[in-house]
């Protein structure tokens, strides 16, 4: 066990400490989770649904507290934190319907009856990043619990507080003791133990592509199931026929929300060459007007970056440190805290600002020549998570949506996440899908049972 200090990103002060667990404590927790899962399996489907609805109500009642915790721990603007807490409630409510809908099928066969069951896996290990701590946690634990599993969850080192609170709320709502445990600690100790402990039957990992590859390799040793939600470098494609004003007005939010620390951030804006200059003219006031400041203020649109270490990484992409060309910047507060002003670059296609996932409020704007060039440029990345396209041509909207290699696309919108629709990445942005109606099935094994029926004679 060791102690870890939590820092408020808005003023760089230490405001709390948490105990990091060691391997033995993790193993004990996993054993408790396995025992709790047996008790959970003894609940009827309707009883499991009732407890998940009670969990959703407990989150609803605690929304303001969760939001304040997230704002202090992660620096999210409080209006965003409130949305996130409400989203966790909605995810739980949505999946509370699942226990009574885990439908198998009856398959016509000779000599008897054949039916399938969706059996829970047992204990599921969830490893989360620091950028959206509570929402990403809920995308894993809500469908996993609904499908009949126990969950052990390791939050990111910097941002454990809302996940710890959610575990308390689940227990108070009636989840069996040990069924949903949040285990703070480091990736190489607690996260890695989820991978190596054989009682954990599946890993849901959200984080960087580099660590995701290590997790996948580790899981292969036990043929452990794995879902990966990894990095992104998503394109926001603006065609000349689009409503340019609407596209430019929406573009800052699509990349600067959560200070760009968003796997779906549209960090490459691709603009048809004939309207490129006009688009930049429209973008500039929208970027300069983006409200960056105290995350506790209701009107703030963007807060600080999560940590000093992350700020230093993002600063490495400013011109001077790279050969990118600075177009214009917004503003950010001076003084303590991890502040970085929204930044617009106009680099070459091969610049590392265009190819790396910066995970900060930095966007590159690039011109393209025609539809084929736009698609090629959008796909010129090993990532494939999200993207947007802006056009008033319906045929083009469908053609380009089908051609862009990404899991979540929006037309004339930058919205990627709805709890009722599937979410996940192509290529090196991930493996598997979260959310949507099928998510609980990813936490089950299909079992086929044949019942022989003897002939009447
Ligand atoms: P990270 O990979 O550094 O860490 C993610 C989690 O993995 C943390 O909890 C960390 O402690 C843990 N971890 C680190 N090393 C480990 C190991 N060896 N074994 C087991 N666990 C380990 O990522 P981050 O910096 O916290 O998050 C940012 C990244 O997450 C970005 O790349 C972003 O795109 C990605 N992300 C993806 C999605 C998505 O849904 N696709 C969502 C949010 C964030």
Automatic annotation (TrEMBL):
GO MF: oxidoreductase activity, acting on the aldehyde or oxo group of donors, NAD or NADP as acceptor
Membrane-spanning segments: none
Active site: 229
Pfam family, one: Aldedh
CDD domains xref list: ALDH
Domain (Aldehyde dehydrogenase): residue spans on this chain: 3-449
UniProt entry tagged with the keyword tRNA processing: no
Keywords attached to this entry: Oxidoreductase
Gene3D superfamilies: Aldehyde Dehydrogenase, Chain A, domain 1, Aldehyde Dehydrogenase, Chain A, domain 2
Family of the protein in this entry: Belongs to the aldehyde dehydrogenase family.
Record PANTHER family: ALDEHYDE DEHYDROGENASE-RELATED
Name used for this protein in its record: Aldehyde dehydrogenase
């Amino acid at each position: 066990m060791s102690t870890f200090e939590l820092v408020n990103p808005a003023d760089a002060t230490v405001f709390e400490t948490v105990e990091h667990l060691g391997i033995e404590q993790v193993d004990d927790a996993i054993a408790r989770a396995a025992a709790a899962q047996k008790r959970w399996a003894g609940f009827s489907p309707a009883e499991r649904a009732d407890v998940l609805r009670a969990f959703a109500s407990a989150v609803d009642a605690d929304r303001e507290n969760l939001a304040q915790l997230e704002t202090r721990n992660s620096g999210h603007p409080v209006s965003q934190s409130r949305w996130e807490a409400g989203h966790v409630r909605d995810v739980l409510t949505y999946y509370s319907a699942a226990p009574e809908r885990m439908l198998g099928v009856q398959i016509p066969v000779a000599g008897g009856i054949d039916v399938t069951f969706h059996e829970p896996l047992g204990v599921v290990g969830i490893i989360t990043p620091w950028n959206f701590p509570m929402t990403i946690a809920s995308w894993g634990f809500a469908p996993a619990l609904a499908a009949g599993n126990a969950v052990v969850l390791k939050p990111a080192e910097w941002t454990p507080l809302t996940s710890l609170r959610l575990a308390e709320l689940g227990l108070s709502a009636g989840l069996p003791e040990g069924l949903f445990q949040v285990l703070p600690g480091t990736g190489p100790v607690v996260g890695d133990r989820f991978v190596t402990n054989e009682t954990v039957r599946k890993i849901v990992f959200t984080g960087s592509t580099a660590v995701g590859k290590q997790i996948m390799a580790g899981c292969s040793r036990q043929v452990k199931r794995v879902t990966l939600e990894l990095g992104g470098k998503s394109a926001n494609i603006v065609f000349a026929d689009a409503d340019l004003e609407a596209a430019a007005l929406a573009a800052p939010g699509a990349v600067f929300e959560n200070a760009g620390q968003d796997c779906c951030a549209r960090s490459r804006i691709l603009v048809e060459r004939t309207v490129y200059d006009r688009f930049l003219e429209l973008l500039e006031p929208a970027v300069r007007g983006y409200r960056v400041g105290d995350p506790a203020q209701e009107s703030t649109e963007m807060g600080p970056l999560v940590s000093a270490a992350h700020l230093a990484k993002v600063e490495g992409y400013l011109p001077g440190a790279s050969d990118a060309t600075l177009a214009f910047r917004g503003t950010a507060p001076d003084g303590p805290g991890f502040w970085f002003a929204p930044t617009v670059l106009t680099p070459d296609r091969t610049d590392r600002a265009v190819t790396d996932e910066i995970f900060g409020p930095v966007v590159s704007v690039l011109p393209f020549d025609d539809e084929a060039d736009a698609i090629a440029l959008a796909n010129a990345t090993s990532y494939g998570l999200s993207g947007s396209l802006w056009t008033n041509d319906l045929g083009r909207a469908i053609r380009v949506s089908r051609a862009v290699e990404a899991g979540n696309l929006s037309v004339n919108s930058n919205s990627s996440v709805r709890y009722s629709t599937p979410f996940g990445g192509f290529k090196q942005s991930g493996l598997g899908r979260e959310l949507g109606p099928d998510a609980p099935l990813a936490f089950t094994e299909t079992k086929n049972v044949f019942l022989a029926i003897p002939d009447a004679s």
